[in-house]
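B., you asked whether I could sanity-check this one before it goes into the benchmark set. Here's the sequence:
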Amino acid sequence: MELASPPDLRHGPSRRRILSLSLAGAGGVLLAPALIGRARADTTVKVGQIEALTGPSAAYGIRGRDGALLAIDEINAAGGIGDGKVRLELAAEDMANDPKQAVTIFRQFATDNSVLVSIGPTNSVGFVPIVPIAGQVKLPLVGDGSGAPIKEWNAFAYRVNPISGSAVPVMLRKIVAKDKIKRLAVLYDQTQDGQVGDAQVCKSMAGELGYEVVAFEAFRAGDQDFSPQLATIRSVKPDAIYVAGATGDGIRATSQVKEMGFKQPLLTGYGSFQDPVYWDGTKGQIKGDYTWLAQDLSSPNAQLKQFLERYNKRFPQEATSFSTYGYDAIQTIAEAIKRAGGPDRGKVQEALSKLDFTTALGTKVTFKNPPNGDNLTPSVVVIQVTGRGTYVAV
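And here's what the prediction gave me:
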């Protein structure tokens, strides 16, 4: 039977509105509270998803949501998960870049017995504060993009993507050597945990790589004028500038860097410069600058190439690494349900804690929690931007 198309979410839902996206077909039924813990034929369970679908991190959140949608669609079309043929339904809600909103939504998911697990947010502003709550309410959480350091993990929290602590050092080692960088300036958003994490890694790597951080300039999300910070950076004559900002703020900051005549190479994290939105917003001025990806989207393996074709045909915004994170998060949950023998929160958590498998995209996911929920085997590809959405691996 052909699956019904999900509602059109391209413009994002309104704040606080939960979008239940049923991809199970006409025969699917919601899991009643009494059914948590045992699977039956054609059981449908909800996967909660918290994303910043509006605000400065929306470019990440929308991609994470769409990747998750595609994965759920394909799992259900193939007949479901395991012997019980468990099907999935996505309940996505907009945190609007507000950490308090992310916490509220997650707690609501935890009290809904039809929600088996939650994924997201792609941004650290939302992910970091809900990590401790996952352990308190015993709701499994799988992150799909956050890269900020986590002070204290618990056995219910995980993330499939590379993090600042593992990816930024790889990029710095390559670019510092390639461009002979001795003086590095950092411009970062102090309100975003992921961006602060990037900035701190730049500081911590200075001794090992032999460069000096000559400027460490902060701004706040929503700032429009970066001229005070850039005046300071100009005065110290750096060899390169690391710009750490979510897409909306990063585009403004990067554009002003270019408009002030800086010729030094720029670096950023989370694949931001590869996003066509960034290219358009900066009018192509990021050509020649650097970032990192978890997947080499320009030279994909067969599985990833097919995914990109399916994704770009279905959704209006081109795929980025965040699209693969959403897809891989659902794949990870499906594998955990299969190994758990059915939709039981506790058993799914146990399966996640020692999960070691490869997703349909070829992503290696390895968890060992305790001590932490980070993916122990992420891939990192350092790239230099050559055009709109195009690049060469470094």
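One thing to flag: Confidence is low (pLDDT under 50) at residues 1-40. Otherwise nothing jumped out at me.
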